[in-house]
Amino acid sequence: MATDVARLSFDPARRYAGVVTQQGRVALEAEQNEQRTIDAEERREVLLDVVGPAGTPDDGYAVGPASGTDLTIGAGTMYVGGLRVVLDEAITTDKQPEWLDQPVVDVDRAGREHVLLLVTERDVTAVEDPALYEVALGGPDGAARTRLVQHIVRRPTDASTCAGALGLDLKGWAAEGLSFDPATMQLASGTRLLVTWQQDPDVGDPCEPSSTGGYLGAENQCIRFQITGIDPDDGTITAVWGYDDASALYRVTPDDSAAPVLTLDRSPVDDHHRPRAGQPVQVLRASAELTSTDGQVEGWVAALGGVVGVLATPYDPDTKTVAFPTALPSDYDDDPQLYLRVWQEQLTGVTLGTPVALTGTGMQVTLSLATGGVPHVDDFWCVAVRPSTPTTVYPARYLRTPQPPDGPRQWVCPLAVIGWQDGVFDLLEDCRHPFDPLTELDDDGCCTLEVRPSDAPRLQALLDAAVAGRSIKERGDRVTLCFSPGRYELVRPLVLRERHSNVTLRGCSGAAVLAVRPEAVKDFGQGMVLLIEADNVSITGFELELPQVPAVAGRVTGLANTGFTAAVSDAVNSQVGNLWVSIGIRPVSCAVLEVADCLFRFTVGEHETTPEVAQTMPRHVFGVGVFAAGAQWGLRLTGNRFLHDPLAPIVGDGARRVLAGYLLGDTALTRDNRERATRALGAARLPALLDDAIITDNRFVGIAAPLLVSARLGQVTIARNQVERCYGGFWLVDSEALASTDLTGKYEVAGGREPAAALARAAVGGGLLDPVLVLLAMFAAVHPLPDLEDRRPRGLVQWESAHTKARLTEATELRTRGMSSLVSALLRDHPTTDPADGTAAPTTTRARSRATATSALFNTPITTVDAPAVTVPTSPTIMLEANLVPVLIGWIATLALIDEEREGIRTTLSVDANIVECAVPDKGTTGPALFVYTRATERGQGEVSNSADADAATVSSNRLTSLHATLTAAVLGLGSAAVNGNVVGGGRNDRTYALAVAAVGAAAITGNVVAGFVFLPENRPFPAPLDTWLPFNTIG
Questions:
Q1: Would you list the DSSP string of 593-624?
Q2: pLDDT at 650
Q3: CA 692 → CA 718, 731, 909, distances in Å?
Q4: Which residues does residue 369 pair with via DSSP β-bridges, in sequence order?
Q5: CA–CA distance, 794 with 775 (Å, rounded to integer)
Q6: Which contiguous run of DSSP H or E holds residue 762?
Q7: Closest-CA residue to 678 (of 576, 539, 819)
């Protein structure tokens, strides 16, 4: 470490930018060294400004397991305190090429550890690195070099986070006399040294002038003072000092004797520099390898400290040996190279605050501590003295105030907090800070805060701090949280509440993966990201690995004096028993939510990889990428991918696997009985609404239902989406229409044809009674809401249970009238036909049509339908209990009819340019590719309304295929609808229908290519064949 320098003249307080050489002046090495230090410090300050305290641009210094309890440190680059260090290849902590003298520590590896990178600045001379010799000089060496030596330190800790472990380390370092500056990552010593002059205690002849003190030597010198040890018993200090900056260093070889004789590799330069009796010498180990480009070790950096002994005999010039007075420690035996440093004097029993003389110099030094702890071993100070100015030292500040040591300078960088559980490595937190090169930054400086994978355990705290103290009313005061590429293992869901409005969560480069730490999975029953009344939130660019969470739904109970009886609750519980949920994003009553460019990866449980387990413990899986509740205004669901490959069978091994992309439905329970882990049906209801929604450019692969919305429908656009190998497609059910639909009663309509009635059964029942739709609607209704912090969610409808039954009876009467209207609307477009010859009977009015012959429309449709031509099949994959249908279609939906009067909303649907291909393994039954069910109109075919509140839909340019469904595409209800330019493929038998358009006030159905049967209005007011829509479409 020591080099033969005249003085250290650099002083950062003077703010010098460079050294100016003048003509005719002597060139001083001190000036050249000062210029080198100015340049190095300027570069370090710049890197601190650009990179920050610490960071890696290439995932360098990653901590991982090795054999046993050893650790591997990955190759790469790390910036620490403005210094750049590199590992060309991975290393292990037990065998570090730059820590050959690592002490053997008997540490129990069963607990937690804080892994740190310690960087120490060292000077290397030609004695240590022979490649620095210029042999043409005949022996003398030239300039030395500065090197950064790296140690990977493992400190035991009780903390499980980087912040906690660093806090404990701060206390440990303070006890060692060190302090840590997080802004520069420097580990600084608190030991201080003050220089004073000795006074002559004996004046002698009073006629002689008294001594004022000063330097007594005759040579210009740089004196080095270094602490070598602390007595553990009394705390006294052992130190050494030497002339020429203690630069006299030799390679030595010990013999085998107990007190070894050390052979020097070269003779001292002159007699004055030969070790003398009574002079202290220090044996140093090799601490770091000096390797050439071709991998050959050519030298070793000498350690900072070592064993000190005072010579009893002088140097023997004939044998080039010195006799070391004591035995060397055993760990010196296998050292690749030992070194010997020669000092001038050893000082023992030094105490803090007491001056100690440096014999023969006239100087004395006093050690002190600026902080607590103890003096730091191996600290050194370099003080220059000149005979021409005996009462001055250089730098002069040593005479004024106690000064910090000149070295060794050290920096520390936390890498990871790890744990050991039964000998198994566990990365508790990654403490590194990755960063992108400047040329790869493309966020235009819009990030309020950038987080790293190591921040995963504290994401909530970081987000809360970022939004603190701002007004959510100011949209311009937006917070953008940017996630650097990497895997974020969450330990708890990320929750955004009202105070988190106007927030963007952005995954950079599409490479930010959100996952769940396995031991924390039980806390994710509501999803990975929860949004509770948080408005104007954007979530973009993430990959979400949806977890499997057991038994989050628990059980539901009925409520006294309501229609939710024990039979109803038993029916629901039979479907949610042994349930596993898998939810990505869970928005509740949010406005202007954007989910864009995200990848949702689904799983269906252990049976995929361990079928033996699945046979005995099947999983019922309910998975949703985006599971919404309440009112959703301004939704933007764009550019996402919802993937499970291959398609999971809806039923297999006795387990149901229902995966959905986007789900929104009414919620019909609250957490009334938390202490009993049950939830009461009918206690309250959170109505669902979807308005101003744009769902475009998404891809759905291998799931059951890409989209199910059972809510009040406003303006909804569904365009350019792609559905592959899914059970169903896009299902939009208006909650008011659903509330008016009774599929368990029997209705008679005059004037309807029996085939038309059968077609109506297929059109409505084939969609509303689809088993997957029923199950998803049930899950949406009974799945508990997230913790709302003891407040009612926006839009909650709650009532006294004592009045519920009476109000439900009243609502049922309203539903019966609504159902009669729906039945009439379904059949009005199909005039009576004479069954004898199949020709059309004379045209009748709607009033007359309702006044003649009767036919049954619905009669327990979950199992059978009274129709000779069309059968609504019993669930092909999931057997639903009969009680479940009244739960969903009856009571829960009927609650909408007893809500307080709400502001009207106009339904405007646009379904354009989508590709929907429904297919399941082994040609199993599939669901509708498109099912739109809204309120039926009272107007007749062709009666176009000019009312501003008329509901309308356009369905155009879609490719819709579902070869094994009762219905492939259906548009039911609405004031007007345009169904144009679609390619629809359905089953080619008399039990399935490819396209159904019914109960629409005014329709335009043209340019469609349909493979399969159709159910279209047949009472256009034109002569045959223009009285139907068949001539305007290609149907085969």
A1: EEEES-EEE----GGGT-HHHHHHS--EEEEE
A2: 62
A3: 11, 17, 10
A4: 191
A5: 26
A6: helix 754-768
A7: 576
The number of beta carbons lying within 10 Å of the beta carbon of residue 152 is 23
Nearest CA to 239 out of 252, 248, 230 is that of 230
Q: In terms of C-beta density within 10 A (0-12 exposed, 13-18 middle, 19 or more buried), how is residue 361 classed?
A: buried
- Count Cβ neighbours within 10 Å for each residue of 99-118 and write b for 16 or more, e otherwise: bbbbeeeeeebeebbbbbbb
Structure-token pair, residue 287: 């601490």
Q: State the CB neighbour count (10 A cutoff) for residue 943.
A: 12
Distance CA 901, CA 885 (A): 26
Give kind and range of the element (H or E) at residue 156.
strand 145-157
Q: What is the DSSP letter of 54?
A: E
Contact 767, 970 (CB under 8 A): yes
**pLDDT for 837 beyond 60:** no
Answer whether residue 884 shows pLDDT above 70: no
Measured between alpha carbons, how far is 578 from 514 in angstroms, rounded to an integer?
26
Global pTM value? 0.62
What DSSP string runs through 87-142? ESS-EESSS-TT-TT-------TTSEEEEEEEEEEEEE-TTT-GGG--GGGSS---
Question: What tokens does 798 get?
Answer: 């709650």
Encoded tokens for 59: 């995932």
Q: What is the per-residue pLDDT for 978?
A: 96
877 touches 795 (CB < 8 A): no
pLDDT at residue 773 in the model: 86
Return the pLDDT at 842. Answer: 30
| Extended strands (E) in 219-330 | 221-230, 237-242, 249-254, 261-264, 280-284, 286-291, 297-302, 307-310, 321-323
Choose the weakest-confidence range: 48-57, 530-539, 867-876: 867-876
756: confidence class by pLDDT, cuts 50, 70, 90: low
Q: How far apart are the first and last CA of the chain?
A: 91
- Work out the pLDDT band at 908, boundaries 50, 70, 90: very high
Any idea what DSSP says for residue 175? H
Torsion of CA 23, 26, 32, 38, to 10 degrees: -60
What are the residue ranges of helices labelled H in 547-682? Answer: 566-576, 611-616
